[in-house]
Design brief:
Keywords: Cytoplasm, Methyltransferase, RNA-binding, rRNA processing, S-adenosyl-L-methionine, Transferase. This protein is an alpha/beta fold and 286 residues long. The chain is built from twelve helices and nine strands.
Amino acid sequence: MDNLSNISVIKDVLARHNFTFSKALGQNFLVNPSVCPKIAEMGNAKKGFGIIEIGTGIGVLTNELAKRADKVVAIEIDDRLMPVLAETLAEYDNVKIINADVMETDLHKLIAEEFQGMDVAVCANLPYYITSPILMMLLEERLPIKSVTVMVQKEAGTRLCAPMGTRDMGAVTVAINYFSVPKLLFNVSRGSFMPSPNVDSCVVRFDIRDKTPEGVTDEKFFFKVARGAFSQRRKTLSNSVSSSMGIDKSIVNQAIEQSGLPASVRPEALSMEQFITFSEALRKLI
């Protein structure tokens, strides 16, 4: 269906289906006609690829993905959108809509059944309130995918794509860099959506690593240390990890010393290799 980024067309479609926006689901539909083509082109929507879309809205991005990729499987939690999508995506025979919660969907099974012989990528305009859980699920599941391209809140995107060892990084930065190579693609103003959110957005892409960094013997413990390190952002690594993980400070300090780090080092100063070295030293001491 053409002109899906035209506000009058959107309002007409939604009115005919008696659709109202859900704040609980964080629904903000894209109305800027230039954004979705860029997401599709930068998000690996091309010949030879199958795309998993998370959250369809009324199908603006889905349309652009379907024009370019071999197949699109879109997962949409809001059953009220099913008749809307049946209308807006009627012209495409390479689109499948699944009415489900992506957090409760077996994506390994979905990929095996729907994308045989294709490379796979994920594209999504994610609700702000569930950005991190969805991203971590996509990465931790070690899905056979090439990339994850998502629209997120601008502040979140800055942290997700922050280089290791810089002031903007946080626990999620460690996880993102462990599984992928992140890149901030472009910014999207709040006026690009209907209804307009209170913050600006950005589009980021995570190119999945063929291999995760070496040296981690217990991933759950490694990520627990990362979360603990950034639980109190203005404190030293020693204070944050000791208080958040309930480990005697002398043990944490011993791990810091064994890792060749300054006693007063702050977590945002650590590289990936230093985080791994510290985590492994701490694991062996407790």
